[in-house]
Amino acid sequence: MVATTSGREPILHGIGVGDLTRHEADSPPTTNRRVAALDGLRGVVIISVVLNHSVGVLWSRGQIYDIPVVNGLLGGGAVIVFFVVGGFIVTDGLMRERERGTFDPWRFYLRRLVRVGGQLVAVCVVVSVVLAVDPDTPSGIDISANVIHTLTYTFNNLVSTDPYVVGSEFGHLWYLAVQQQCYLVLPLLLAVLGRWRPALVALLVVAMVAIYIHRQNVLDDRGWVVASSLTTTRSDGLLWGVALAVALPWLSRIKAWGHVLWVAVLVLVALKLVLPELGTYDYLRSWSIPFTLVAGIVVVAVWLLPSATRVSRALEWAPLRRLGTASLAIFVWHLPIIVIVSRHTGGWSWVERTFVSFVILAAVVWASERWIDEPIRKMLATRPVFRIRREPAS
Q1: Helix (H, G, I), strand (E, B) or coil at 84
Q2: 3-class DSSP assignment, residue 2
Q3: Cα(176)–Cα(165) distance, rounded to whole angstroms?
């Protein structure tokens, strides 16, 4: 997120959601259980995102943040998990379509624009109206630039070139820009190299290494705001998810995924907890390498589990699954609500501000899912323009 208030430096928090929608391809994954477990994983991460953004807005960093474990639980770093999950699920769906002969990049682009765009249009309209009429709106915010860059999925470019005109209410949407820009290229890459899986995996790994090296250079030369928001510096996690989906035929030969999942989850949690004890920008440096790799292992382990385990059952817990399926709406709306409520409740206690913010968020998410997401899902499932055009039988 980029916070822009007069006389203050921009503040960008590295957050995001992986693939916020359900499986974009019409082919289901191997079992519904695996989708449920990944929904639960996204539910865990969206909790981390909301709590992380509440720090410094709904409540200040108090003494509780001096406790290493608590600091790690409430800190950032979740964006990498979302990138990996999103890249994996979307690529698996596209590869399945390719194998069935129903691969259609244009249909994929259209479905994603409609699926994600519904929430973005709504939040842009609401936030723009609030900022326009609110006398307490900070000076310097260019509302039209925020809206245009959000709806064209170029918001990360605005963040990196002119962060002082970015409103805090929009700042988290850089992630969707990075994601959609990657998904603009992904179908074309799979169309050209999808039949040569080893070469494609090798290319993706090389690209990940190049992105990491480039991020270090940008971080040193242009600062952390730019390094945190560019597609060329933040898409290595998504590419790792893509590589793992392409490599699934080989990974499926491994039989010990139940044991791997236990170990990978423990390592992932440990890495999350240790992050605050490292350097300020280490989430952009060396820490990102093991965290990205392990996050991918967790996703693949869940996907390829031969049977349910205690870890997968925990991820399938109904409240976590519900948060995961609602993660698009939660992600898009949580920061505007938190920022606007905080701006007008300066005399309230942090408990009161938090309670009101979360109640409003729950109501908005429920309403947006009912009147935005559900109609869009129905339209995508029933309108011929969005459905797979199957090849005629030979």
Answers
A1: helix
A2: strand
A3: 19
Q: What is the pLDDT along the chain (394 residues), one digit of tens a residue?
A: 444 433 333 434 433 353 444 444 334 444 565 679 999 999 999 999 999 899 889 988 776 677 767 777 777 778 899 999 999 999 999 999 999 999 999 999 999 999 999 999 999 999 999 999 999 999 999 999 999 999 999 999 999 999 999 999 999 999 999 999 999 999 999 999 999 999 999 999 999 999 999 999 999 999 999 999 999 999 999 999 999 999 999 999 999 999 999 999 999 999 998 887 787 788 899 999 999 999 999 999 999 998 889 999 999 999 999 999 999 999 999 999 999 999 999 899 999 999 999 999 999 999 999 999 999 999 999 988 887 665 544 4
Q: What whole-number distance in Å separates Cα of residue 303 and Cα of residue 136? A: 48
Cβ atoms of 350 and 58 within 8 Å: the answer is yes
Q: Are strands 2-3 and 11-12 parallel, antiparallel or unpaired?
A: antiparallel
Residues shown for the chain = 394
**Nearest in space to 274 (alpha carbons), one of 83, 77, 51, 81:** 77
| Measured distance CA(111)–CA(389) in Å, rounded | 14
CA separation for the pair 253, 238 (Å, rounded): 23
d(CA 352, CA 361): 14
Q: Rounded to 5 degrees, what are φ and ψ at 338?
A: -60, -45
Shortest CA distance to 189 belongs to which of 87, 288, 83, 110?
87
Tokens for 170, please give them: 């929009």
pTM: 0.89
- Which pair of structure tokens corresponds to residue 368? 């947006």
Residue 369, number of CB atoms within 10 A of its CB: 17
Question: 122 and 182 in contact (C-beta within 8 Å)?
Answer: no
Estimate the crossing angle of helix 318-325 against helix 32-54, to 10 degrees.
Answer: 80
